[in-house]
Write a structure and sequence with these properties.
The chain contains 18 helices and 16 strands. The protein is α/β, with parallel strands linked by helices. Strands 1-12-11-8-7-2-4 form a seven-stranded mixed beta sheet, with helices on both faces. Strands 13-14-16 form a three-stranded antiparallel beta sheet. The chain binds pyridoxal-5'-phosphate (PLP). The site of pyridoxal-5'-phosphate (PLP) has 12 residues, from helix 3.
Length: 447
């Protein structure tokens, strides 16, 4: 098959040429004073103490070290999740407890959270998955009532708001990630946002590494981020990913882990020394991207709204309700189909990359068998969700291409089943029909 000149990658941070400058300039002599994290996040997270981290996962690690929970304490997490987060909890001697996922938002279901609480529960870890706000106010209320700590995973959620507030400001701590595949990137690094009271207890500097491999991360990430630019992708990152996959199959996964990180790696263990320290140039790299945040969010949301509206009520596709608890930032575009693999293959034939499995239902992964749980709605998400492109740099023509490709992929699809009903609705007593309904409606009609 001839290689297409223009493949639409599934993701790009949509960088402008100038966005690379602070990172490049930092390696030259005679550098100027840099803004700090506090300065560049001032408008979004003014009330938090912000600590630069080598990665997003370091932020969770550092938080868990700071709160120092008793061994075996339970950490409640949404089952549809990034396996690294679950692995970290386990590696810290804590016990992940899987809470079912709301298929409308891909986030933790607060009703199931209440059911999963035990006297050993200590921390609730909420992910604003795909940049969709979780039911964070309801969950914060549960935490306050039960005396539990609350941590927010905001790796996808820069620009996601609830009411007037940016996410990451609701809990005791929050992680942000600036890796090459996130919607704002510093070619690596991350951030821990802490409540002022916890910040007084936290050490300033997390552990990090200074080996050649650790130091190579930022320049390699810069090339990866540049390689996701649609005009370059077909000639750079795409072939590189193929080489990296081939190398990994021959036993050298290093490049693959950077260029195309696995979504379920049972051998993974967090190693704080595998990442270089948070660099002084990272806030300056974030600054122009944060300056464009409102435009980027509006553009991404417009793409999602346009494609969803055009596909409409087709029984072969189902859409999320990203704004159920606030305003989603549009960084990931999720859609349910009957067969994600077949749908993806059909999209790729038309030069549009789609990810058939962004994440998995961790409650069913063999690597977490010890913590296995029944989370039927997370299983549904895992089995039917695909991720389509929605990045800010998509123009009208590219959006039309995504829509055309999706329409023809759906033509070959079967209708997608609706998500399973939440346990609570299944158990809830059926209200007696009103007198009027009794006299007119047949008994078998469901409302
Ligand atoms: C990327 C990501 C993280 C971790 O960020 P890193 O910077 O890669 O360590 C955590 N949670 C979610 C949901 C992510 O996508």
């Amino acid at each position: 098959m001839p290689m297409r000149a223009r493949v639409l990658p599934k993701h790009t941070p949509s960088l402008h040429p100038g966005d690379y400058l602070p990172c490049v300039a930092a390696s030259l002599p005679g550098r100027r004073a840099q803004p700090g994290l506090r300065e560049v996040w001032r408008e979004l997270l003014a009330e938090r103490e912000l600590l630069g981290m080598p990665s997003g996962r370091h932020a969770l690690w550092h938080f868990l070290e700071t709160v120092d929970l008793p061994r075996g304490s339970e950490v409640l997490v949404s089952a549809y999740n990034f396996y690294v987060v679950v692995r970290l909890i386990e590696q810290c001697g804590l016990r992940p407890v899987f809470v079912d996922t709301d298929p409308r938002t891909l986030c933790m279901d607060p009703a199931d959270l209440r059911r999963k609480l035990t006297p050993s529960s200590a921390l609730v870890l909420v992910t604003h998955m795909f940049g969709i706000p979780a039911a964070i106010e309801a969950i914060a209320e549960v935490c306050a009532h039960e005396g539990l700590l609350l941590f927010e995973d905001c790796a996808h959620a820069v620009g996601t708001t609830v009411g007037e507030r940016h996410v990451g400001g609701f809990g005791d701590g929050a992680l942000f990630s600036f890796g090459p595949f996130k919607s704002v990137t510093a070619f690596g690094g991350g951030m821990l946002a802490l409540s002022p009271s916890l910040a007084r207890r936290a050490r300033r500097e997390p552990r990090s590494g200074r080996s050649v491999a650790a130091r190579a991360r930022v320049p390699v990430n810069l090339l990866i981020a540049a390689g996701t630019t649609p005009a370059l992708y077909a000639w750079t990152l795409r072939p590189l990913t193929r080489v990296a996959t081939a190398l990994a199959e021959r036993g050298s996964p290093l490049l693959r882990d950077l260029a195309a990180p696995a979504k379920d790696n049972a051998d993974y263990r967090f190693d704080p020394d595998a990442y270089p320290p948070f660099a002084a140039s990272m806030p300056a790299t974030l600054a122009p991207q944060l300056g464009r945040l409102h435009t980027a969010v509006a553009r991404r949301r417009a793409t999602i709204a346009h494609v969803s509206a055009a596909i409409g009520a087709d029984p072969r596709a189902r859409f999320l309700d990203g704004d159920a608890h606030g305003l989603a930032n549009g960084s990931y575009f999720g859609m349910y189909v009957d067969d994600p693999e077949a749908f993806t293959a059909s999209m790729i034939e038309r030069g549009v990359e789609v990810n058939p499995h962004e994440f998995y239902d961790c409650s069913r992964l063999p690597q977490f068998a010890e913590f296995a749980a029944e989370c039927p709605r997370a299983a549904y998400v895992s089995d039917h969700l695909v991720r389509l492109p929605s990045y800010a740099s998509l123009d009208g023509e590219s959006t039309a291409r995504i829509l055309d490709a999706a329409m023809s992929a759906l033509e070959r699809s079967a209708p997608v089943a609706p998500p399973p009903v939440a346990a609570q609705s299944r158990l809830a007593p059926v209200p007696p029909p009103s007198a009027a309904a009794r006299s007119s409606a047949p008994l078998t009609t469901a409302s």
